[in-house]
Amino acid sequence: MTPSLFRSRLLGLFYVALASVPLSVSWFSERWRFGLLLASEPLMVLTVGVLGLGLLAGWVAWPRTARRLDKLIGLHVGALFLSTVFSGNVLVSAKYFATILLYIGFGYGVQRVLRLERAEWFRALGALALGTGLLAAYALLQHAQIGISYTFSYFVARPFLEHGHTNLTVILEPLVLVLNMILLYHARAQQQRGRFMVTMLLTAVLMVVAFSYSRASYISLLAQALLLLAFSGREAGVRLLLPWAVAGGLVLSAWQVINIVHPHPPTATETNLLHELGSVSDFSSANESNAERMSRWVFSLDLFQQEPVVGAGPATFPDRYLEFVRHDPAHPNYTPTLRRMNAHNLYLDWLAESGALGLLSGLLLLGYLLVRQLRWVFRGQQTPAQVGFTVYLLFFLLHSFTQDFWQEPRVIVLFWLAIGLQRHYARAAMLPSATDTAALQPSVASADVSSR
Fold first, then answer.
1. What is the phi/psi pair of residue 229, to 5°?
2. Which residues belong to the signal peptide in this entry (predicted)?
3. pLDDT at res. 361
4. Degrees (nearest 5) of the Cα angle 182, 188, 194?
């Protein structure tokens, strides 16, 4: 097999796997699910395996040098491995550690080795957007048929981890950002017809988000909107206000219509959108979701104090927290949320499960990405790519205060893709200036010679 043929086939497999990632949900039957701790996503495993085979067979070249980001990823992986070795449950931690390697290998390793070109990047993002769009359409259709039920949002997006927890909305937030970027900068979206189409797509996605009752996503999207307005500038930001107003009005209207058609949806909670928006800051026992988050944050700090250096072990938080709840009669028993057992905070989860080493290595990795992005932003004239990547990275970091994304393939795969794509755009932006500098040097030298 020739290297070019191998590369094209590997890319085809990569695109198919990307499209399947958002669709890896419990839609119809338990038997169609694959366990995160066993294989996660078979197509991801296959893609990484084929990439490894290509490297060993010489069909694709090994990276020539190790970048600083490669070293920081290796440092964080090393910290997780050390925590796994000293884990209170080595088997559980080892399985989790293997899945983290898989996500990094698929989301970062494939594009790092193949060095994707611009057209290949767009195909990859298009494949991921296709799967995400199909998931949103399916969710919207289900709400129209059964009514607004927050339990559906958790069911359809249930992660592969037994005690994992991911709301459908965190998969859709990047799609909302992409649609907002199109409204801001795409030429066709500046025309009336194109603007109408994109606004309707944005409205449909925001309906799915609103119907999920996810307060964390409400805050995250608000932060995304504020960041967009801040980084895009006043004149560009004004172009978003009318589509947002139209989308908000349609979401509220659809909420009322669906509640009239389905007054008794299959959920134990009857509420409305305005009530959910108003309860974001309520951490009392009346708001079990927020109260449970606070309980897990406090327990994470307690768990860190027991094993401050290497932590309790990756993926051991669910069992440790469940044991704490069952043996603490003073702890309220929030039955609906007991099975969703992560710490609901990426940084506290690192601290509790991997100790100071895991948190420090993770913060070094994320901090390097943030500094790299800010240096690119303030280096020259602001571009749409700079705005999009800055907003994405900042709202990912902010949302991580209320959610642990490191265990969720449908979020973390996109994160690694975005990191690679950001470097691709940053290098492309720096190449013209480097070329101009190189071209300028001979002319300066010749001018010096002539002056002599």
1. -65, -35
2. none
3. 96
4. 85
Cα gap 153→215, rounded to integer Å = 13
Residue 102 has pLDDT above 60, yes or no: yes
Residue 253 lies inside a defined structural domain of this protein: yes
What is d(CA 265, CA 276) in angstroms, rounded to the nearest whole number?
17
What is the 8-class DSSP label of residue 65?
A: S
- Out of 281, 305, 324, a domain closes at 281
Strands (E), 162-267: none
How many angstroms separate the CA atoms of 319 and 94, rounded? Answer: 15
Residue indicated by tokens 């701790």: 37
Query: CA triplet 419, 423, 425: central angle to 5 degrees?
Result: 115
Cα–Cα distance for residue pair 114/117, rounded to 1 Å: 9
Residues 304 and 381 in one domain: yes
- Mark whether 133 and 208 lie in a shared domain: yes
Q: What confidence tens digit (pLDDT) does each residue in 328-369 have?
A: 656 555 444 444 467 889 999 999 999 999 999 999 999 999
Using the structure block, give the residue that is written with the tokens 């890896």. 24
Tokens 């669910």 belong to residue: 318
277 occurs within a structural domain = yes
